[in-house]
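User: Structure please.
Assistant: Input sequence and predicted structure:
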Amino acid sequence: MSKSYRKQDKSMSTIKDVAKYAGVSTATVSRVLNKKGPLSEKTIQKVNEAVEKLAYHPNVLARSLASGKNNTIGVLVPSYDHPFWSELLQKMEEEAKRKGYNVLFTCFLGTLEEKQKALEYLISRQVNGIIVCAYPDSDFWKEAKKKFNLPVAFMVNVSGCDPSVISDDKQGGLLAARHLIAKGCKKLVHISGNLSYYKEADDRTYAFVEEAKRRNVDCYVYQNTIDITKLEELQKLVNKVFYEQPDMDGMFLSNDILAAQCIAFALSQGLRIPDDLRIIGYDDIYISSLIYPSLTTIRQNYSVLAETALENVLAQINGEKVEEVTVIPVELIERKTT
């Protein structure tokens, strides 16, 4: 093989080109690339040099067609904009790579047509399993799992959709209520998530409200059904809460973005935090420690959530049984807003 040939066509190099350049068989090249079988250091070096010189990249699609497995997990997410999902997905990809898998992300907003398109997209890419981070329709996924015999793990808790991996939101609501009450708050306000969709949002709210009731502390709940990326609409909700509850002294928000907006609005109205108003968020996204004042929040364990969801899918791929629901503990992180 001439130097001019290598320079011109190295982007299209095949395993045969690598074998010819190294002076070995294609089987030997395959063993070197897959780190299988006894091989001399000299042979390994020759093959690696040929791979580098020819800029050879194995055809993953061809491998998957031949083996029926491409070591890829599909992940359905409701939004790339929400910091919680972006941080979770990063941990998921890191964990997948450690286990020798790739991840393929796709986003859908929840309509039946979008779910169908997203599922067909992942199936056409021959993923080995799917992790569903968006709100799942139990009937839709029951039918899909039956039709495609596809391992699926969910990161929201909906009846009939298992296995699920969720944070301990009851614990989160309880921690938030106890912390605010311990700080002397007498009138609490909670802005919840969409209670008609997510069971965990309901669990979080129920635990917070019940603990306030048990401690004889007034508590008012506002439900947020607005997409987290629609900041102007969220601000209207925040304005409404501050207008209707001017004497509140403690707030528990369903996510840190909403909490950050409440901090900004409170400061703009001349309120002192935490002297006049104490605020707790949820998730502990990275900006929570950067805003001023830094946000007290309920931390979800991104690493454990991602690792457990991935392990649930891999266990199903290997024919193993998994827990129907795995609950991951949360933690209160106290900063300057309380």
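The chain has three domains: 3-58, 71-167+303-330, 169-300.
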